[in-house]
Amino acid sequence: MRFTDPAEAHATLALRDGDPAALGYYLDHDRVHVGDVTTTSEQLFDAWLTDKRAGLDAIMLAGTRELVAVLNQQPREQRLAGSRPRHEATLADGNRASVGDTVVTRRNDRRLRAGNGWVKNGDRWDVDGVHPDGSLDVHNPSTHRRVSLPGGYVTNHAELG
Question: Is pTM beyond 0.85 here?
C-alpha cells in the first residue's frame, strides 16, 4: 500500500520488521485504541455500517479468525432482520450464507474460472444463488466476474465476508 505521509510509510515498514519504536507513530496519531472485545467490536461494526451507508467500500479486521467470523455475522443478522432465508449454504467459518450475503474465498483454484480469471484466495463475492448441494452462484462486485462455487469448495474454503 502506498502512503501519502512518508512518516507513516516508515512506521509501517518498521512495524513489519518488528521494531517496537514504530508504535510511537501510531500512538502519536491516535491510531491505537484500547477497550474490551465487546465494546471494541460494537464500535467497529458501527463504523463499518456508517461507511457502508455512505456508499464506501469498508472491511472489518480482527486479530483472530473466530472474532472475524463473529464480526461477519453482524451485517448478515442486520440485513436479515430476523427473517430466515429459504436456501442457505454452510461455510468454512461456521457461518451460513444466502442470497445477498458477501463471501470471501480462501483458496486459489484455477479450475474455478471466473471470466478471464479464476477464484483466488481473498476474493470477495456477492451471493446471487444458493443450491441444495451447498454450491453458490456468486459475482465479484468490482470486476463483475461470475462463477459457481461447488458445495465442497464452499464448506471448506469460503467464509462470510
Answer: no
